[in-house]
């Protein structure tokens, strides 16, 4: 366990497992070694000011790439070695590890190399493994390949340094800062060297590239970076040569890109005449956690067993607040790609439709029974059920919808429930549960039965339990089954009545969908006109209704009972849930990410077409307050409800809480470990 200074480092990206990576396209001129050297150092200083940890330059950037037989000229090669010595000496006081490309001689052979430089010393030299020699490429004319260069050393600039394609570099003072270097064509090969390096433990994969530009090639590079970062469960930083290279027969666009687990974090401006530096903070902890929980990764590592040398170095991380350069989704469950918006929402909605359709077909019943409150969850479950009827060619009257008003049911929600049932054309009815609830409370000798305004958990759960009890008996009576309306967010928090309440159903169609995604899907249903105008009008009104269990009567001066006032904003809880369940992040890091995502409503991006009036922000004390609630409820006492939850479809890659799926945990665990981690990490 790393012994970090705790509260004082909370705002440091290094404290939370992030490494700042840059892809640089410096100024370059054909074979102008001194000019190129200055351009490299200019970008090194700019990266140092930006608190970069690792800086990736283009292939052969010291000499420039497109110089053909000039690579074989002694004068040029001598100048390259002198320039490297100068770069090394100038790096002594710079924070970034520099990955510089240059042609180097060794034992009578010339290699296309990446030189790894840190704090005034060369850590190692990596030769290019695969040399393109087709179409416009003639690299085998000049260079020797490095595939078999393993276990060797090279003397350069007075230093004897590791030399070979078997090198992985690791900062001993910054956990997770473990990187590998490959060069251009290497990642166009069927099995890139970085694949084996990742299996051997490299977390950040880098590529120094030249790569001339042709139509469509930028997309191909993106595809390869995205694919490699996803398949190798790693980050991938790519830097290609830009304007200034020889255009005798080729052109260059200077593409830089940084990916993590298939996600694009940053890319540079292409064809720019100015030097480019694209930056992103890589989450090494997320990567390592993902590898740890994916057995296939360990199996592949065991099968290949390629040996690498680990070069350890002293990085000297600053442990200071340098911000966070990284896109963070406020709503990690909500689709955020405009180009894929319709497809993502279509898939999410129809996963639910397909799950319910299949379950309905396999039951012996002929009706679907659902309690309709006029709230968001029952609304979404109902429109999913209506789509099932449409797909199966059944009348929507196959659905029996019931309003079940209790002591605190509002006129607005009940009115919306009736409007929605009528608009959808289902069979609808109302059962007032208050007489039965009064009888039960009286039988229990509850103070409310004697006229006292006691609205405790018993009072609430008598109503919640009766609603479910009625629905199950109505299902018996009508040869049907009960559609559950509870969602993923409620199951995470245990915000549901166990067994006889809304936790139980015959099929929980919403159980894989968090509250924030349900809101978005209902908006998508309206925008794409899945139903008629009358239905859309009601759905719009329901979206504007405050989320409430409507279990405690509202006094004349009292505001409507609000779920979020009691347990916290669902938008925060869904954020906490995603990062806790999907990646196993500690509470302190979840708080750090939430603070960067939510502290400024004007910064960052919001989901597409998200209403301006709904855009909120939270400071760190607010985030910490509700994170404590989440941790206590999620780890401390809600698992027993999840262990007994009914079937329902997984919808999001963020996971589900089914005990048969993503999340399996003991029902008698304690939240103390997670609460303590949060408290000792937060700043005063």
From TrEMBL:
Deamido-NAD(+) binds at residues 461, 490, 495-498, 641. Gene3D superfamilies: Carbon-nitrogen hydrolase, Glutamine-dependent NAD+ synthetase, C-terminal domain, HUPs. SUPFAM superfamilies: Adenine nucleotide alpha hydrolases-like, Carbon-nitrogen hydrolase. It is an enzyme of class 6 (ligase). GO terms for cellular component: cytoplasm. ATP binds at residues 371-378, 485. It catalyses: deamido-NAD(+) + L-glutamine + ATP + H2O = L-glutamate + AMP + diphosphate + NAD(+) + H(+). One of its GO terms (molecular function) is glutaminase activity. The active site is at 59 (proton acceptor), 128 (for glutaminase activity), 184 (nucleophile). Catalyzes the ATP-dependent amidation of deamido-NAD to form NAD. Uses L-glutamine as a nitrogen source. This is Glutamine-dependent NAD(+) synthetase. It comes from Alteromonas pelagimontana.
């Amino acid at each position: 366990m790393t012994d970090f200074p705790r509260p004082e480092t909370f705002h440091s990206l290094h404290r939370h497992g992030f490494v700042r990576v840059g892809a640089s396209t410096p100024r370059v001129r054909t074979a102008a070694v001194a000019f190129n050297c200055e351009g490299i150092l200019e970008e090194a200083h700019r990266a140092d000011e930006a608190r970069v940890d690792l800086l990736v330059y283009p292939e052969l950037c010291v000499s420039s790439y497109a110089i053909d037989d000039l690579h074989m000229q002694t004068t040029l090669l001598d100048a390259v070695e002198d320039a490297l010595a100068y770069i090394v000496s100038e790096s002594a006081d710079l924070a970034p590890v520099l990955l510089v490309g240059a042609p180097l001689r060794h034992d009578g052979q010339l290699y296309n190399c990446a030189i790894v430089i840190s704090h005034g010393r060369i850590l190692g030299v990596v030769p290019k493994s695969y040399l393109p020699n087709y179409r416009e490429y003639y690299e085998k004319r000049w260079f020797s390949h490095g595939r078999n260069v393993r276990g060797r050393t090279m003397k350069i600039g007075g230093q004897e340094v590791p030399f070979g394609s078997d090198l992985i570099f690791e900062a001993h003072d910054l956990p997770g800062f473990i990187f590998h270097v490959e060069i251009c064509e290497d990642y166009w090969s069927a099995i890139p060297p970085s694949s084996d390096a990742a299996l051997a433990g490299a977390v950040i994969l880098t590529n120094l590239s030249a790569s001339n530009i042709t139509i469509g090639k930028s997309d191909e590079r993106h595809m390869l970076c995205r694919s490699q970062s996803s398949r190798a469960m790693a980050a991938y930083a790519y830097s290609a040569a830009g304007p200034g290279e020889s255009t005798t027969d080729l052109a260059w666009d200077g593409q830089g890109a940084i990916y993590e687990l298939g996600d694009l974090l940053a890319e540079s401006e292409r064809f720019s005449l100015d030097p480019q530096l694209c930056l992103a903070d890589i989450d090494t902890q997320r990567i390592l956690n993902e590898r740890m929980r994916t057995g296939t990764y360990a199996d592949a590592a065991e099968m290949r067993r390629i040996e690498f040398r680990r070069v350890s170095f002293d990085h000297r991380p600053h442990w200071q607040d340098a911000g966070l350069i990284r896109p963070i989704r406020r709503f990690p469950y909500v689709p955020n790609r405009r180009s894929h918006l319709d497809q993502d929402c279509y898939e999410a909605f129809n996963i639910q439709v397909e799950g319910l359709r299949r379950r309905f077909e396999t039951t012996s019943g002929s009706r679907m029974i659902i309690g309709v409150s006029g709230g968001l969850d029952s609304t979404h479950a109902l429109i999913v059920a209506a789509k099932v009827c449409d797909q199966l060619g059944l009348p929507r009257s196959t659905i029996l919808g019931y309003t079940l008003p209790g002591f605190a049911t509002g006129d607005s929600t009940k009115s919306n429930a009736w409007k929605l049932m009528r608009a959808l054309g289902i069979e609808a009815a109302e059962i007032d549960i208050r007489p039965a609830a009064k009888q039960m409370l009286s039988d229990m000798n509850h103070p409310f039965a004697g006229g006292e305004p006691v609205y405790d958990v018993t009072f609430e759960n008598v109503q919640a339990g009766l609603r479910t009890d009625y629905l199950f008996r109505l299902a018996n009576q009508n040869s049907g089954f009960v559609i559950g309306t509870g969602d993923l967010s409620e199951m995470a928090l245990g915000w549901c009545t166990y067994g006889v309440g809304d936790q139980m159903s015959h099929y929980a169609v919403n159980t894989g969908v968090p509250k924030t995604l349900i809101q978005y899907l209902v908006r998508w249903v309206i925008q794409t006109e899945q139903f008629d105008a009358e239905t859309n009008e009601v759905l719009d009104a329901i979206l504007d209704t405050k989320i409430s269990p409507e279990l405690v009567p509202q006094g004349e001066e009292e505001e409507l009972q609000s779920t979020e006032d009691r347990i916290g904003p669902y938008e925060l809880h869904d954020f906490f849930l995603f990062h806790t369940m999907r990646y196993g992040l500690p509470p302190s890091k979840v708080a750090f990410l939430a603070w960067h995502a939510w502290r400024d409503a004007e910064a960052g991006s919001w989901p597409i077409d998200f209403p301006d009036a709904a855009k909120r922000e939270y400071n760190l004390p607010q985030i910490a307050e509700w994170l404590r609630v989440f941790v206590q409820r999620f780890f401390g006492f809600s698992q027993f409800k999840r262990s007994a939850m009914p079937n329902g479809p997984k919808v999001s890659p963020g996971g589900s809480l089914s005990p048969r799926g993503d999340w399996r945990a003991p029902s008698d665990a304690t939240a103390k470990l997670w609460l303590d981690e949060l408290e000792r990490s937060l700043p005063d």
